[in-house]
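Help needed: design a sequence for this.
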């Protein structure tokens, strides 16, 4: 019984390693798509899918919004598109739209332009 449990532990480590490697691959795929992103398409996606809750432009400071303005999100993440993609892909329970990685990268590229 003890020997069997030890065997389980030897199997579990490579499994965890594989899971970590695929997570790292996923993150670098996000990073790579952030580089190829299209800020104009991101602006259109943001207007269509994010504007109901977020102020997505530079000129909406006076508007009442239920979510942080994109300018604030851009500043918080240092205008780093990769960090913004991670924030978009992260837990976002109230968002009614799940962007594909390429769409998240486009929106992040747009958000990063809001300096
Ligand atoms: C239904 C309303 C809603 C929609 C639509 C929505 N959001 Fe949000 N978003 C929120 C709310 C509320 C928060 C703050 C609380 C939270 O994180 O759940 C938030 C937070 C965020 C954050 C995290 C901000 C931070 O502090 O890091 C990011 C990034 C974000 N939204 C991006 C987007 C993008 C991009 C879209 C469009 C693709 C979008 N959101 C659409 C409601 C929305």
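Sure. Designed sequence:
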């Amino acid at each position: 019984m003890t020997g069997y449990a030890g065997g389980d532990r030897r199997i579990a480590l490579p499994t965890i390693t594989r899971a970590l490697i695929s997570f790292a691959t996923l993150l670098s795929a996000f990073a790579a798509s952030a580089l190829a992103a299209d800020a104009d398409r991101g602006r259109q996606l943001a207007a269509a899918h994010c504007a109901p809750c977020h102020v997505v432009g530079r000129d909406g400071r006076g508007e009442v919004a239920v979510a942080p303005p994109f300018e604030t999100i851009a500043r918080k993440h240092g205008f780093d598109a990769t960090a913004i993609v991670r924030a978009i892909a992260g837990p976002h329970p109230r968002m009614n739209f799940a962007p594909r990685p390429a769409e998240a990268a486009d929106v992040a590229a747009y958000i990063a332009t809001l300096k």
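The pocket of heme C is lined by residues 46, 49-50, 52-54, 66-68, 73, 76, 87-88, 92-97, 99, 107 (CB under 6 Å).
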